[in-house]
Each structure stands twice: as structure tokens, then as C-alpha cells.
Amino acid sequence: MTLFENKTVVITGGTGSLGKVLTRRLLSGSEGTPEKIIIFSRDEAKQHFMRVEYQQKKKATDEVIYRNFHQLLEFRIGDVRDFHSVCSVLQNADIVINAAALKQVPSCEYFPYQAVMTNIAGAENIVRVIRENDVPVETVVGVSTDKACKPVNVMGMTKSIQERVFISANITVPKTRFICVRYGNVLASRGSVIPLFHEQIKNGGPVTITTEDMTRFLLPLERAVDTIFAAMKGAYPGETYVPKVGSSRIVDVAKALIGDRNIPMKTTGIRPGEKVHEIMVSDEEAWHTYERGDYMAIKPMLPELVRGEDDKPLEREYSSKDTVMTFKETVALLEKYNLMVEQGVNGEEEFLK
Predict the structure, then answer these.
(1) Three-state DSSP class for 90?
(2) DSSP string over 165-216
(3) Residue 147 designated active-site
(4) What is the number of domains present in the chain?
(5) Is the dihedral of CA 253, 258, 260, 262 positive or negative?
(6) Which long-range contacts (CB under 8 A, 24 or more apart) does 197-206 make?
(7) Weakly modelled stretches of the chain, pLDDT under 70
(8) Do 215 and 246 form a contact (C-beta atoms < 8 A)?
(9) What is the predicted pLDDT for the residue at 17?
């Protein structure tokens, strides 16, 4: 099945960590060659440097924007909050992958309405544009997070509502399939703990952890993209795909990165809006969650949307405390993705390599 052959794909928030790896995978043609990939975001600087890298120029001053709209990889300045710019970018879209988000937990706590505007109103703008303009979009994928499951912080709360905005859209816009993916912490993405630990180690410490009990699902960026592709291939309208993935104790991640260095560790205590363990599928969701190979599919709560025959449901929550890797396994994971040394952290920036 060639998912993207001759398709126009819009990636909102496409200059982020996920967007870059997703773009590289699309350009590889592994799932078919798109007719057009449109990177839609509001940060002109990130677009500039991503464009320069795509064109393989030697320095930023070599960049030429004038043929932007004739390139396979096209860049559009805009914001999911702005209905008019969403109208413009979706007019010829076949597939929309909504990676635009305010995702840093403390930022969302201090500026909750900003999180609402991007994470909820942005999703509603996508739905509204398709519905009101009868845009023939085939599939919309909402990128969510484990923090949306039993949320205790604003980021998770807004992402949880985003999931419901997209799921319910299958009722009012039945010609378009709206699906979601939900996964945990992406290894070495912007704002994640691994770059922070490397910076603390570089400065001589201390390396700060909140509690020795804390666990987190750890997902390579490539697996995050795999989850999107798997959902596009197998999800019925309104379903949410969740990858089966291991978790680690954050203290083990810190110890692995410190290695033999004489760097102290400091326990700072749980931060506001933080959980000791993250949950990918809640107890309440488990009864309508089913295994699909390397993934689990959460069926929609709306009975009109429930489709497909599956085996018995999950029956219990899927928590990071239940899938904890050993210290040795954590080290092996970090080594596999070149994250034991600082220069490995920025590997996602080189999105064509």
C-alpha cells in the first residue's frame, strides 16, 4: 500500500522534531512519492534553515526562496490558530498531519489559554475548514501524547480535548477520516530531558531528577513516524493508535548519560503538573482498546463510529510503571540512537541524513 503516492501532504508544525523526521521519511519514497509536501508553521527562521538544508546549500546566504511553490517540499508561513491561513494551506490537501502544538508542560501551565488556542482551536480550525469549504481531504492525523490520558496538566488537558475534536469530526465531516496517534516522550526532541541532562553534565552538574521512582515511555522519532504510518494504514475513523513501547526510570537515563564522570545528581521533587508514571491507555479506555500487531487501537467512545472486529480488549491500563526496562536495556536504547554523547542530541536537526 503506497500511502502517499501522488498525494499532497500538509504537515502543520512541520519544522519541529517530529516534522523533520516525518519529512525525511516522506522524501525517501518508502511509502510512495508525494506530489507535494507542505511544511506549515509560523516560525520563518526554522523554515529558512530547513529549506536551506533541503536544497543542500553550503551556507544560509545561498538560499533562494523564489521557486518555493514549484518544489516538492514547499514551505508556508501560517498558524493553525488563524482560520484564513488554514483555509489557504488545506485547499489542495489530500492528507493532513497535525503536529502543531504547544507541548512544554510548564509553558502551558503559565499560559493555559495559549495552549487552548493552539492545541484545541487549531484542531477545530482544521475541521471547520474541511467542513465549511468541502475540501476533499482524505485523512487527518492528530498527533497526541500520553499526557492526554487522565491529564493532570494543561498540556495534557488540551491534547485530550484535541483528540475528541478530531474524533467527533468523523460525524460532521464523514467524507474525511479523522484519526489520532498517542505516544510518550520522544527521545532527544526539543524540550525533552536528554538534552537537559547533557547540558547539565557539560556544565559539571548537578544532574537534576524529580524522584528516583519516575518512569517514562521512551520513543525514538522513527518509531513515532512509524506509528503515524501504521494508523494511516489500519485505523478506522475515530480510532487512536498507541505503540507498544518500553519505558525507563528517569534516574537510569541520568546515570547512563553520566557514565563514569564524577557528576553529582540532585533530587528536586515532583514538579507541578507532573506524574510519577505516565499512562498511555487508561483503565476506562482499556475495555475498548485492542491489540493490532505492534500497536493498540483505542476505539472511539461515540457508538456511531465503532467499526471492525477485534479480539478481547486490553482489560487493564497501559502504564509506564508496567513496562520498565532494566538499566542495561536503557543504556542499549540510548546507545542504539547515539544519545550517550552530546553531539547525538542534534541528529534530528539533520533531517535529510
Answers:
(1) helix
(2) HHHHHHHH-TTSEEEEEEE-EETT-TTSHHHHHHHHHHTT-PEEES-TT-EE
(3) yes
(4) 1
(5) negative
(6) 197/253, 197/254, 197/257, 198/257, 198/342, 198/345, 200/263, 201/257, 201/258, 201/261, 201/263, 201/342, 202/342, 204/263, 205/263, 205/264, 205/265, 205/266, 206/263, 206/264, 206/265, 206/266
(7) 1, 56-70, 188, 190-191, 342-353
(8) no
(9) 87
Given the residues 147, 159, 275, 299, the one annotated as active site:
147
* DSSP assignment letter at 342: G
Does a structural domain hold residue 135? Answer: yes
The string of pLDDT tens digits covering residues 73-93 is 999 999 999 999 999 999 999
Q: Is the peptide bond before 206 cis (omega within 30 degrees of 0)?
A: yes
In angstroms, rounded to a whole number, what is the distance separating the alpha carbons of residues 321 and 181?
Answer: 21
This prediction's pTM? 0.91
- The packing angle between helices 221-234 and 17-28, to 10°, is 60
**Whole-angstrom distance, CA of residue 55 vs CA of residue 76:** 16
- In a 3-state reduction of DSSP, which class is residue 313? coil
Q: Is residue 280 part of a domain?
A: yes
Report the pLDDT value the prediction gives residue 184, as an integer from 0 to 100: 86
Which residues make beta-bridge pairs with 215?
A: 249
Cβ atoms of residues 10 and 95 within 8 Å: yes
> Is 1 a member of any domain?
no
Task: With respect to residue 26, please indicate whether it lies within any of the assigned structural domains.
Answer: yes
CB 137 within 8 A of CB 90: yes
**What is the identity of the amino acid at 40?**
F
Expressed as residue numbers, the domain containing 337 is: 8-349
